[in-house]
Every structure is written in C-alpha cells, then in structure tokens.
Amino acid sequence: MQMRALVTGASAGLGAEFARQLAADGFSLVLVARREERLRALAAELSAARPGTQIEVLVADLTDAAGLERVAARVAAADRPIDVLVNNAGFAVSEPFHASAIDDERAMHELLSWVPLRLAHAALPGMRARGHGGILNVASMAGQLPTGSYAAAKAQVIALSRSLHARYRRDGVSVTALLPGFVVTEFHDRMEIEPTAVPRAAWADASAVVRDGLRGLRRRRAVVVSDWRYRLAAPLLPLVPDRMAAGWGLAGRLED
Q: Which residue, of 57, 131, 228, 251, is most buried by count of CB atoms within 10 Å of its CB?
C-alpha cells in the first residue's frame, strides 16, 4: 500500500516541489491550495510522470474557518490515513508593521501559525495509533531573527515543531521544522524583491531545500536549516545585534 502525504500550498513553489519529490519517493498525494487550475495541472503532471500514483485535489482557503476544517477532517480521516503532513502554505504582508492592515496581519498569523497547529492536532491521534507518521512544517530563517511580524509567526512554528517532536517522537511520530532562507520560487518573485537587493550567492534552489527537509524528517530531526550557506551562517545569527537584523526585513506578499 502506498504511503500518503498531504501538502498545503501545493500549487506553486516549495509546495509543488514537495509534491514532485514525494511522488518520486512513491507516495500518493493530497494536494491542497486555493487555486484549483494549478492543482489540477500539477496532478496531471505527476500522474503522467508516475502512472498509478493516487492523487487527490482538495481546493481550500486555509484562512477560512470552514476551509481549514475540511482539510483537518481529511487529515484525520482514518479510512485514508495521512502518513506525512507538509505544512507549507503561507504569505507575507508587504507593509511595515505600523502601516499594515490588521486583518492582513491576523490572516498571515493564522495561516503561518494557527494552520500548522490545527492540522498537526488533526494528524497526531491517527499517527500515534498507527505508530508512525511525519509532520514537516516549513518555517524560515527569519524565525531566528527580529525581522517583523512574519518572523514572529515563523518563530512560533519553530517552537511548536520542537515541542511536538520532543513529546511525540517516542510514539513513532517525527515533527520537523524546515528553515529556508532565500529560495528561487514564485514566493520571492511576487514579493517584488529587486535582484540587486539580495546577493546572488544567497539564493538557494527549491529542489535542494525540499530534499533537505524530507531528509531531515526521515532522520527524525526537530530543526533543519536548508542549504549549506545558511547552515554556516546559523550559528552566527545570535551574535547579530537586533537593530541590525531588523533592517533585513523584506517587503512583499505571497499567497499559495
């Protein structure tokens, strides 16, 4: 029987790459995002590349309570169990905190912080009963820095992942936070970052980032910093003064 993975934010970027690599590893898939046409195009691509792979398309807006609960119910379904949950969906708010719309801030924090918690809560009872499972939460290197509200939400995802990993690893369930830096995906294209704003050497490849995350999940690691450049930099981040790190915040907005 094929193992099954559910990926949120699967319509583009890291989410689509997670789907491709999981399909290549033999998983059947549940693809979740708001944009149905993109999900169906990805499902067709994966079905053509991997005949026999079972692929479900679940269209949902995770910032909508009813949409989130539909996905949570699918995660918890005992008759079609989810073996690996990838919490990837996200967006960033463009304006600085003092000028942003509070509804946008709330929606961002719900998607980045509440949604992974809600879906993990739905996944864990079944995973524990079966004695195995994995939850991969896409966080960010920003979660290690005081770079605004987005960073605060990602810091919560890191803390949640570490806590759940420590508590449920003994039950056969591994929970991993993946910390990417700048990744060549639609996320940063739509954030409208000027090419010269970030050195070319700082950009990581999406396929490598996803491989790092899935490898870390298989190895039962609580936190994975993707890309060797960011792994080299990670120990130095606590030494960076807050006032300097705060200037590294990025403007822009992305939705799955």
A: 57
- Token digits of residue 195: 């090419």
Instruction: List CB contacts of 183: < 8 A, sequence separation 6 or more.
Output: 13, 14, 203, 204, 205, 206, 209
Global pTM reads 0.87
Neighbours of 104 (CB within 10 A): 16
Catalytic residues: 150
Domains of the chain with CATH codes = 4-248 (3.40.50.720)
* Chain segment 230-240, per-residue pLDDT in tens: 666 666 666 56
Strands (E), 50-191: 55-59, 84-87, 133-138, 173-179, 182-183
Closest CA to 55 of 31, 34, 37: 31
**How far, in Å, CA of 156 to CA of 56, rounded?**
30
